[in-house]
Amino acid sequence: MVVKIKTKHEVESIAPYVLGKKLEDVQKELGLKSIRKMSENENIYGCSDRVKQSLASHVERLHLYPDGLATDLAEAVSKELNVRPSQLLFGNGSDEVIRILAKAYLNPGDEAIMADVTFPRYRSNVFLEGGKPIIVPLTNGVHDLALMKDAITDCTKMVFVCNPNNPTGTIVGKEALLSFIKEIPSHILVIVDEAYFEYVSTDDYLQTIPLLKEFPNLIILRTFSKIYGLASLRVGFGIMDESIVSELRKVKDVFNVNHIAQVAANAAILDQEHVRKCSQLNQEGRSFLEKEFTRLGLTYFPSQANFFMVDCKVSGDEISQYLMQNGIIVRSGSLLGYPNMIRVTVGTEEDNHYFISLIEKNLIEQGVK
């Protein structure tokens, strides 16, 4: 029987988020002995050993509701980032913080400015609240802040800057972003998504947290899903003015971050040595892939994250299928706004070498190398 209850217009007008197949299903379907997942920008090195040790002692509390304010986690994060606990709002991934922001601040017809190729949850959450996403093209894979500023109208309520940007991995320079934040009217929220902050190695990157005192309309998003290796537990957070946190707490689900996730994130942020180690290994992997892409004559966006968007000289769908048949899963650019590219996560040294060997083999088979 077909359900005839009509959904709201906004739901009918958006497509569901495209999820990849389970590794086990792909492996069985293709008859592969092993498979390497290099498609979702996860930390290939996993989480800190402290996390694993911390979880064992908390299984006896599974019958209890979690702390709705994530008090212990907020205290740990505040000490690491030198902010007040009252400036932090935690969510079921930073996705939820974006959704809470849209629910709390957008009225039908309000506008939110964002890049044309960026994290898709900005657009969908704005749209679902009756807001109007204002899409500004990237320039060479980078946010065009001048065009974004020019797009501001009397209806603008918020602006999103993903830095480093997903899926291009690019950043906007520190002076450009600082100037942009200064020029945005104080009644407009400036939301800087720093999910890949810990992977950045360039000096030309704006440290945004010190700006919170001067710009109460600034919101910074971070996550435990990437370098901290806790993607399956879904913990993200926003750093912002206390007055905004107070308003968002009215909107968020009471128990939105489960107890095990809070315990794991608390342990994870205390192990900054693990973060530094993963960042260093990622830099080494990035450098290797950059050199190999150049050697093979492949174009790519300069990345400050743990992934690359690279043009492998065939369609993204074609090369991703070729790689999957040979045991590597990447994300086709056709799903990300770049149909002739793929997005590949920086893997282990072994992963990266195998990936490059397959790309080189494919180029030879095409007769272009």
UniProtKB/TrEMBL annotation:
Pathway: Amino-acid biosynthesis; L-histidine biosynthesis; L-histidine from 5-phospho-alpha-D-ribose 1-diphosphate: step 7/9. It catalyses: L-histidinol phosphate + 2-oxoglutarate = 3-(imidazol-4-yl)-2-oxopropyl phosphate + L-glutamate. Keywords: Amino-acid biosynthesis, Aminotransferase, Histidine biosynthesis, Pyridoxal phosphate, Transferase. The modification N6-(pyridoxal phosphate)lysine is found at residue 226. It holds the Pfam family Aminotran_1_2. Residues 37-357 form the Aminotransferase class I/classII large domain. Its EC number is 2.6.1.9. One of its GO terms (molecular function) is histidinol-phosphate transaminase activity. The keyword Iron-sulfur does not apply. Its cofactor is pyridoxal 5'-phosphate. SUPFAM superfamilies: PLP-dependent transferases. It is an enzyme of class 2 (transferase). Signal peptide: none annotated. InterPro entries: Aminotransferase_I/II_large (IPR004839), HisP_aminotrans (IPR005861), HistidinolP_aminotransfase (IPR050106), PyrdxlP-dep_Trfase (IPR015424), PyrdxlP-dep_Trfase_major (IPR015421), PyrdxlP-dep_Trfase_small (IPR015422). Belongs to the class-II pyridoxal-phosphate-dependent aminotransferase family. Histidinol-phosphate aminotransferase subfamily. PANTHER family: HISTIDINOL-PHOSPHATE AMINOTRANSFERASE, HISTIDINOL-PHOSPHATE AMINOTRANSFERASE 2. Homodimer. This is Histidinol-phosphate aminotransferase. It comes from Bacillus salitolerans.
